[in-house]
Amino acid sequence: MKGLEDRIRKEGRVIGDSILKVDSFLNHQVDPVLMDHIGAEFADLFHGVTITKVLTLEASGIAPALAAAYHLGVPLIFAKKSGSHNIGSDVYTSVVHSFTYNRDYMVQVSRAYLASDDRVLIVDDFLANGAAIRGMMELIAKAGASCAGVGVVVEKAFQDGGQQLRSSGVRVESLARIASMKDGEIQFVPEENTGN
């Protein structure tokens, strides 16, 4: 998605060789027009695939996942990272390790919103090592539902999460795949090499 790559080049800030800050348009301040384009792109990529729900983690995955759900015409569920009194105790849970914050989160989804006949598209803002995606896939499996695929806004292709998921048969569609961020310079995987 060229428009997304252009924004990353223009506004993205690289920290070290592995952290990319895109908080000016994706995961702190959100550009709603860009999110609409992202949602439409995911809907196009998964056209013809039966999808009944979109699932993401709070909080930074919500904006692109909501846009995708809107364009697909299905509900969005976001897994909560902390318990709250209003979600109740009848939940599916999974543990997700955040390498950004170096901590584990117990994530949960109410059983009322994820059923065995659901075909779920996972949408997230980033894919690096795949821990968040695998945690969401565990929630889907616990519900007896099926994962229809994974849509990622930015994939750090120099980390192994995307390759591991694809090798296990999961369809992963990434809108921007970063090959490297060495010396503060962002290099994207050439488009002909973005196939799944």
What is this entry, summarized?
This protein has 196 residues and is an alpha/beta fold. It has 5 helices and 10 strands; from the N terminus they run αββαβαββββαβαββ. Helix content is 28%, strand content 32%.
What this model shows, in words?
- The chain is α/β, with parallel strands linked by helices and 196 residues long.
- Helix content is 28%, strand content 32%.
- The protein is built from 5 helices and 10 strands.
- The strands form 3 sheets. Strands 4-3-7-8-9-10 form a 6-stranded mixed beta sheet, sandwiched between helices. It has a two-stranded antiparallel sheet with strand order 1-2. The protein has a two-stranded antiparallel sheet with strand order 5-6.
- It starts with a helix and ends in an 8-residue tail after the last strand.
- The relative contact order is 0.16.
- The model has no long low-confidence stretch (mean pLDDT 93).
N-to-C SSE string, H for helix and E for strand: HEEHEHEEEEHEHEE
Distance N to C terminus: 15 Å
Strand content: 25-35%
Question: Looking at the structure, what is the overall shape?
Answer: globular
How many runs of DSSP E, i.e. beta strands? 10
Q: Strand pairing plus helix content: what structural class?
A: alpha/beta
Instruction: Output the radius of gyration.
Output: 16 Å
How many individual helices? 5
Q: Major beta sheet, specifics? A: 6 strands, mixed
**Strand neighbour order, sheet with most strands:** 4-3-7-8-9-10
Task: Pick out its properties.
two-stranded antiparallel ribbon, 196 residues, 10 strands, 6-stranded mixed sheet, 5 helices, alpha/beta
